[in-house]
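In response to reviewer comment 3 from the previous cycle, which asked for concrete evidence that the modeling workflow produces usable outputs, we include below a single protein chain processed end to end. The sequence was submitted unchanged, and the resulting structure tokens are shown without manual editing.
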Amino acid sequence: MSIPPMSAGITPAGEGENGIVWNILGQTYKPKQCSADSFAFDTLFPPGTFVPPHIHTDQDEFIYIHDGKFELFLDGQTKFASTGDLIRMPMGIPHGIFNKSGSPVKALFWVAPAKGLYELFTRIHNVADPAEVVRIASEYNVNFLPPPG
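The workflow returned the following structure tokens.
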């Protein structure tokens, strides 16, 4: 899938670009912008949801927390980020995102460059089997780490 050039415009608050909303293992993702250079998406992480530790081999990733608190696994350490914080995750650095706060977390994520992340989310929308999500993600250079032994 090739990414079309970004058009000028506004993606309204609370909406995904072109009305798109993805369900990724119980989390809600709404694409806000996509171009070859970057991809931004709003998220809602209900309490108890998470993205296990993984590595983007060819993308930098960022999270700006609108509301709530994440616990992070970031480069081998546990960190905490809350409303107004910006999380920086350079390519190749292991990271995991956990909502253990007991309340929903709203955040804006973005990656640069976009690579195939938009297509990945399209493919894993409503996929209920985490093992299948991990398998598909590996096709897009998003590599989940094995659970700690």
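The first helix runs from residue 117 to 124. We consider this sufficient to address the reviewer's concern, and the full set will be provided in the supplementary archive.
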